[in-house]
Prior knowledge:
There is one protein chain. The protein has 2 helices and 24 strands. A hairpin with a 2-residue loop joins strand 3 (about 135-145) and strand 4. The strands form 2 sheets. It has an 18-stranded antiparallel β-sheet that branches. Strands 6-7-10-11-14-15 form a 6-stranded antiparallel β-sheet, with no helix packed on it. It has about 450 residues and is mainly beta. It has helices spanning about 1-15, 100-105; strands at about 115-120, 125-130, 135-145, 145-155, 160-165, 170-175, 180-190, 195-205, 205-215, 220-225, 230-235, 235-245, 255-265, 265-270, 280-285, 290-305, 310-315, 320-325, 325-330, 335-355, 360-380, 390-415, 415-420, 435-444. Mean pLDDT is about 80; it is low at about 5-75 and about 425-435.
Amino acid sequence: xxxxxxxxxxxxxxxxxxxxxxxxxxxxxxxxxxxxxxxxxxxxxxxxxxxxxxxxxxxxxxxxxxxxxxxxxxxxxxxxxxxxxxxxxxxxxxxxxxxxxxxxxxxxxxxxxxxxxxxxxxxxxxxxxxxxxxxxxxxxxxxxxxxxxxxxxxxxxxxxxxxxxxxxxxxxxxxxxxxxxxxxxxxxxxxxxxxxxxxxxxxxxxxxxxxxxxxxxxxxxxxxxxxxxxxxxxxxxxxxxxxxxxxxxxxxxxxxxxxxxxxxxxxxxxxxxxxxxxxxxxxxxxxxxxxxxxxxxxxxxxxxxxxxxxxxxxxxxxxxxxxxxxxxxxxxxxxxxxxxxxxxxxxxxxxxxxxxxxxxxxxxxxxxxxxxxxxxxxxxxxxxxxxxxxxxxxxxxxxxxxxxxxxxxxxxxxxxxxxxxxxxxxxxxxxxxxxxxxxxxxxx
Length: 444
C-alpha cells in the first residue's frame, strides 16, 4: 500500500509542476461542455517545467531503535459490490462499486441485467430486459430543457446505445402576384438538439468505450429567399475514448481517455444587388474553438475489513483549447488565443455494510486548479510590415477550488433497493435541502 500512496503523491506532484486551464468560465466542462458542461468548456502553451522526481531519502547509519510497525493488509470487503443509484459515489472515486448510470454509459456492462431504475430527483428512468444473450436498454432523461431518449442493446461481447433529443422547425411562405412570386424558406434548430452514439466492449483485461455526439448549444436560424440568405452555426461535434481496467481491477482501479470537441460559432449572410451579383459576409465568433482534453483517474482501498472500506482516489484532466484565429481584414487585425490548464481532484470515499439490508456511504472531493495559462496574440496592420504592431498577453493562475461532501444510505428488501443522499449544500439542494439525490431499483 505504501507503493500506492507514493504513486499517488508523485501524481499530485506532477500535477503541481505542470498545468493550464480554461479561464473560470471554462472550469466546469470544459466536461459535459456546452460543455464539460465547461465547458465553454473549450486551449500551444510554453513547455512545462520538469516534474519533481521522487528520491529515496539517504540511509543513515544504523541506530538501535525498534523496527517500524508493518501496516496490516487491507481486507477485501464483502457484500459491498452491489449495483447502486445516483446518490452513491458522487465524488467519482474510480474504485467504488458500479452504478446504473455508469453502466449505461458503457453499455456492455448492462448485459444480463433485468431491472427498472428511476431517479425522481433528476427525472430519469431506465429499463433493461431480455436475457444473457441479448439485453435491451431504454432510458428517458432531460437534457438542456428537452426530453432525451436512449435506446440500445448489450451483450457480453459489446454494447451499443443511441441518444436523441430533437427541437427542429421548418416553415415556408410563398407570395404570388401578377409579376411573379416570392418564396421564403425558414428553419430553426433549438438549443439542446442532440444526437449521440456509444459503443463499448471488453478487451481482455481492459475495456473500451467510444462515444461521438452532435449538439446544438444555441438556437440556429436559417433563412433563404431569391435575394437573401442567412445561416448561423452554433454546434458542438465531439468524441470521447475511454480505456479502463474494469474487467480485471481487483483492488486498484484506473481509467484513461481523451475528449475532443469542435465548438462552432459561425454566421454567413448572402445578399444580392439589383444586378443579381451576390455579396457574401462571413463572421467567426470569439468562442469558436477546438478542445483536446486527456484525463486519467485512479482509485484504491487504503483501509478496510469484511464490512467496511475506505477508498482514496485522484482524478486529473488536462484541457487544451485553441480558439479560432479572428481575422478582421477591414481593420487589418488578427487575434490568436489559446488556453492550457491542469485540474486534479483528490477524493476519499467510504462505505459500510451495517446489515444485509443496509449500506451507508459518504465521500468528499477537493478540486484543485493546479495551473492555468492563457495566451493572446493581437496583431494590427498585419499586411503593412513597417506599421505592424504585435501585442502578446498572457495570464497565469492557480486556485484551490471548493470541497464537496455527501453522505447517504442504501436499503434493500428482496428485489427492491432504495438510495438517498444528503447534499453538502443544504441551502441549494433538491427537495428543500432535505435530500440531495434519491433513486430506486427493482431487480429481476
